[in-house]
TrEMBL record:
The record marks R122, R129 as: Required for activity. Its EC number is 5.4.99.30. The lineage of its organism: Eukaryota, Viridiplantae, Streptophyta, Embryophyta, Tracheophyta. Glycans are attached at R122. GO terms for molecular function: UDP-arabinopyranose mutase activity. One of its GO terms (biological process) is cell wall organization. It comes from the Eukaryota. Keywords: Cell wall biogenesis/degradation, Glycoprotein, Golgi apparatus, Isomerase. This is UDP-arabinopyranose mutase. InterPro entries: Nucleotide-diphossugar_trans, RGP, RGP_fam. GO terms for cellular component: cytosol; Golgi apparatus. Probable UDP-L-arabinose mutase involved in the biosynthesis of cell wall non-cellulosic polysaccharides. It holds the Pfam family RGP. It is found in: Golgi apparatus.
């Protein structure tokens, strides 16, 4: 199904679980395939920051990519159809979202003002109409919605049939639950912040990989003045994962997040944090200082955040650090 939309791009496949299992990639794709052995070989001891047996492992692909834009998708997501019955080219829409500015400082009630047939509405300050660079494009899902285990348990048959034809900028200062199922981002802008954390095997939590990345990313985008959009495109999410297995993985996250959200909502980064790497290291210090008392896990996570940046900079020696306004480094 994806061939018409993926064939022209470079694929990075991150294989989780047993590295001896052979993944068969169909003919005609330009791809790299990495399993756990590859991750250990490439990162050595720093491989400790890449999760095992959790979707968090996907962020290794972001680190090794040499591309400007990244699109990440789950292996149970397929091409959806829009209300006119046409196949949705999710990549095309994500790229449009990323190439058009965002408007985080003032909400446009007619949604995406840069879209054909829309604009800024009356009362929208002209000084803000240039917008800011878009770092992340968060797509949505038809059929199986991305619900947590408790919600899925009480609403096992709920399906998302509502196609909302809109793209919105998430306002500055507002966090959101970033889902990694249908997500695109500008790697050159925000790549180093897209660490999906320590999840899965050997960890007390799972399935909060994209949530953790989304909260860190949004704080850094707000600080650096970049935008995050949500809405179109849709993909078709084909299967629901097991809510009982999910509950075991995510239950700590369900109560920890009541302390994590206030932490991220009040997190501020100093002016001298002019690159994503500096922002991320500063955030890791605040995680250690303020979340270590929630659970020792966050001390490990704070260390892993530093290891991630070290590994990122090792694999991307050009520094790749975007120096803002010529300051910093
Ligand atoms: O041990 C694992 C388990 C899963 N994956 C990969 O993660 C993707 C999501 O898995 P799945 O589709 O089974 O779960 P969902 O509930 O639909 O996923 C949502 O919640 C977890 C993640 O945050 C995900 O992004 C969300 O969509 C899928 O590609 C599995 O192959 C894994 O690599 N290792
Ligand atoms: Mn799924």
């Amino acid at each position: 199904m994806w061939r018409p939309f993926f064939q022209q791009y470079h694929l990075i496949i991150v294989q989780d679980g047993d590295p001896n299992k052979i993944i068969k990639v169909p003919e005609g794709f330009d791809y790299e395939l990495y399993n756990r052995n590859d991750i250990n070989r490439i990162l050595g001891p720093k491989a400790s920051c890449i999760s095992f047996k959790d979707s968090a492992c996907r962020c290794f692909g972001y680190m090794v990519s040499k591309k400007k834009y990244i699109y990440t998708i789950d292996d149970d997501c397929f091409v959806a159809k829009n209300p006119s019955g046409q196949d949705i080219n999710a990549l095309e829409q994500h790229i449009k979202n990323l190439l058009c500015p965002s408007t985080p400082f003032f909400f446009n009630t007619l949604y995406d003002p840069y879209r054909d047939g829309a604009d800024f509405v009356r009362g929208y300050p002209f000084s803000l109409r240039e917008g800011v660079p878009t770092a992340v494009s968060h797509g949505l899902w038809l059929n199986i919605p991305d619900y947590d285990a408790p919600t899925q348990l009480v609403k096992p048959r709920e399906r998302n049939t509502r196609y909302v034809d809109a793209v919105m900028t998430i306002p500055k200062g507002t966090l959101f639950p970033m889902c990694g199922m249908n997500l695109a981002f500008n790697r050159e802008l925000i790549g180093p912040a897209m660490y999906f954390g320590l999840m899965g095997d050997g960890q007390p939590i799972g399935r909060y990989d994209d949530m953790w990345a989304g909260w860190c990313m949004k704080v850094i985008c707000d600080h650096l003045g970049w935008g995050v959009k949500t809405g179109l495109p849709y993909i078709w999410h084909s299967k629901a994962s097991n809510p009982f297995v999910n509950l075991k993985k995510e239950y700590k996250g369900i109560y920890w997040q009541e302390e994590l959200i206030p932490f991220f909502q009040s997190a501020t980064l100093p002016k001298d944090c002019t690159t994503v790497q500096k922002c991320y290291i500063e955030l890791s210090k605040q995680v250690r200082a303020k979340l270590g008392k929630v659970d020792d896990y966050f001390l490990k996570l704070a260390d892993a955040m530093v290891t991630w940046i070290e590994a990122w900079d090792e694999l991307n020696p050009s520094g790749g650090e975007l120096v803002l306004n010529g300051v910093g480094k």
